UniProtKB/TrEMBL annotation:
UniProt xrefs under PANTHER family: ACETATE KINASE, ACETATE KINASE-RELATED
GO MF: kinase activity
Keywords in alphabetical order: ATP-binding, Cytoplasm, Kinase, Magnesium, Metal-binding, Nucleotide-binding, Transferase
Its job: Catalyzes the formation of acetyl phosphate from acetate and ATP. Can also catalyze the reverse reaction.
Catalytic residues of the enzyme: D147
Location in the cell: Cytoplasm
Binding positions for Mg(2+) per the UniProt entry: N7, E383
Protein name per its UniProtKB record: Acetate kinase
Subunit annotation: Homodimer.
Chief place where the protein resides: cytoplasm
UniProt cofactor(s): Mg(2+); Mn(2+)
Superkingdom as given in the UniProt entry: Bacteria
InterPro entries for the chain: Ac/propionate_kinase (IPR004372), Aliphatic_acid_kin_short-chain (IPR000890), Aliphatic_acid_kinase_CS (IPR023865), ATPase_NBD (IPR043129)
Length: 411
C-alpha cells in the first residue's frame, strides 16, 4: 500500500509518501508560498533532490503538482496516481468529538469546521487540504489524525478550568492539549529503550520545538498536558508567551493602545524567546548569542529551561513519581545544552546523566547511567509515520472502498 501523508498550513503543505506496511519513506517534500506566482516545491527521495518555482494559487493546484511529481518518470516513486491507496491528514484540533483517528466523511468535515474558532490558524488550512485532495483524487479514502485526540483521556478535574462551569457547557472552554500525535509516537518507543511495557510506567514527554509542550503519561494514557484550549498556554516557546497572568492583557492593551488582534499577535508571534531576547525565536541562535555574553539571550535561555523544569516537577507530583523523562522535537532532540540545563536541577529525583550519551549520542538513546532512578531518553519524533500507521489501519480494515458520506465516527 502507498499512503500519502499531508500536513497543510495556510500557505504551505508538507507531505510524505509511505510504502506500508514496510513503513518505508519513498519521497518527502514541501510546497511553500501557496497563493503566489513564485511558490516553491521541494522534494527529496533516496536518490535525488528537486525544486521547482512556479505559480501555485491554491491548495488544489499544490496537490496537483505533488501528485504530478510523484508520478513523473524523473522521480519514479509511482507509475500512476491510482497507486495511492489512502491519504492521511494531520488535523490540529478535534475538539471533544474525536479520541481516535477517523475516516473522513461529511460529518467529520463539518466537525472540523465547528472547531475553526478553537484553532483559527490551523483547522481551516487542514480542511482546505482535505477538500483539495477530494477534488484531485476523489476515489481515494482519507483519514484525519487529530493532535488533540491523544489527550482525550485526561480526567475532567485536569481538563476543566476554574471558571464558571457554564462556559464549558455552552462553549466547551477546557484544556485540549496538542502535539498528541508526537507524544503518542515517542511514548510508544519507550519500551524499546527501557525494557518495560509503557502500561506500567509514569512518563513525562517533553516535545520541545518552536512550539513546545509537556505531557504527563500514566500507563500509556495522557492525564495532563501543558498546552490548553489553544497552543498558546504552557511553556515559554520560540515566539509564544506560554503561561502569563491574564490581567496583563488588559493592562498592556491600555498602556500600549493595542487592539485585541494586535495583542494576540504579540503573544503568539513576538513573545517567548524572541520577545525576551529581542533577537530570535531560534534556540540555536539564542545559544550562540548567550555564549558571546549577550545578557538578554542568557536570560531568555534560563527562563525557557526553568519553565520546562517546573512542568516536569509538577507532573512528577501529579503522578506521584516518574519513571521516564523523554525529550523530542527539534530543540529537545538536538540541544545537549538544553537537556543538561533542565536535568542538572532535577537530581532530587535520582537522575544521573551520562554526559557522553547526552553530548555525543545520536538517534534514540538513553542519556542516563544504569544507576539513575529515572530513565531519561532522547527519541526523535515521527508524527508522519504515526499518521501513516493510523491511515493504514483504518483503510485495511475495510472490505471495500467506503462511501465517505456514510462512514460513522465516535462522538
Amino acid at each position: 500500500m502507498k499512503i500519502l501523508v499531508l500536513n497543510c498550513g495556510s500557505s504551505s503543505l508538507k507531505y510524505q509518501l509511505f510504502a506500508m506496511p514496510e513503513e518505508a519513506v519513498l519521497i518527502k517534500g514541501t510546497v511553500e508560498k501557496i497563493g503566489s506566482d513564485d511558490a516553491i516545491h521541494a522534494y527529496k527521495t533516496d536518490g535525488q533532490k528537486g525544486e521547482t518555482v512556479s505559480e501555485i494559487l491554491d491548495h488544489r493546484e499544490a496537490i496537483r503538482q505533488v501528485v504530478a511529481a510523484l508520478t513523473s518518470p524523473e522521480v519514479g516513486v509511482l507509475k500512476e496516481a491510482a497507486e495511492i491507496t489512502a491519504v492521511g491528514h494531520r488535523v490540529v484540533h478535534g475538539g471533544e468529538r474525536f479520541s481516535l483517528s477517523t475516516l473522513i466523511n461529511g460529518e467529520v468535515k463539518q466537525a472540523i469546521r465547528d472547531t475553526f474558532d478553537l484553532a483559527p490558524l490551523h483547522n481551516p488550512a487542514n480542511l482546505l487540504g482535505i477538500e483539495a485532495m477530494e477534488e484531485v483524487l476523489p476515489a481515494v479514502p482519507q483519514v484525519a489524525v487529530f493532535d488533540t485526540a491523544f489527550h482525550q483521556t485526561m480526567p475532567m478535574e485536569h481538563f476543566l478550568y476554574p471558571i464558571p462551569y457554564v462556559l464549558y457547557q455552552r462553549h466547551k472552554v477546557r484544556r485540549y492539549g496538542f502535539h498528541g500525535t508526537s507524544h503518542r509516537y515517542v511514548t510508544s518507543r519507550v519500551p524499546a529503550l527501557v525494557g518495560r511495557d509503557v502500561t506500567g510506567l509514569k512518563v513525562i514527554s517533553c516535545h520541545i520545538g518552536n512550539g513546545a509542550s509537556v505531557a504527563a503519561i500514566w500507563r500509556g494514557r495522557s492525564i495532563d498536558t501543558s498546552m490548553g484550549m489553544t497552543p498558546l498556554e504552557g511553556l515559554m516557546m520560540g515566539t509564544r508567551s506560554g503561561d502569563i497572568d491574564p490581567s496583563i492583557h488588559e493592562y498592556v492593551m491600555e498602556k500600549e493602545g493595542l487592539t485585541f488582534d494586535e495583542l494576540n499577535s504579540m503573544l503568539n508571534k513576538h513573545s517567548g524567546l524572541y520577545g525576551v531576547s529581542g533577537i530570535t525565536g531560534d534556540m540555536r541562535q539564542i545559544v550562540e548569542e548567550r555564549s558571546k555574553g549577550n545578557t538578554r539571550a542568557g536570560v531568555a535561555f534560563s527562563m525557557y529551561t526553568y519553565r520546562i523544569r517546573k512542568y516536569i516537577g509538577a507532573y512528577a507530583a501529579a503522578m506521584n513519581g516518574v519513571d521516564v523523562i523523554l525529550f523530542t522535537a527539534g530543540v529537545g532532540e538536538n540541544s545537549p545544552l538544553l537537556r543538561r540545563s533542565v536535568l542538572e536541577r532535577l537530581t532530587y529525583l535520582g537522575i544521573e546523566v551520562d554526559d557522553r550519551a547526552n553530548e555525543e549520542g545520536k538517534g534514540e538513546r538513553l542519556i542516563t547511567t544504569p544507576n539513575s532512578k529515572v530513565a531519561v531518553c532522547v527519541i526523535p519524533t515521527n508524527e508522519e509515520l504515526m499518521i501513516a500507521r493510523d491511515t493504514n489501519s483504518l483503510v485495511t480494515g475495510l472490505s471495500t472502498t467506503p462511501d465517505r458520506d456514510s462512514i460513522s465516527f465516535d462522538t
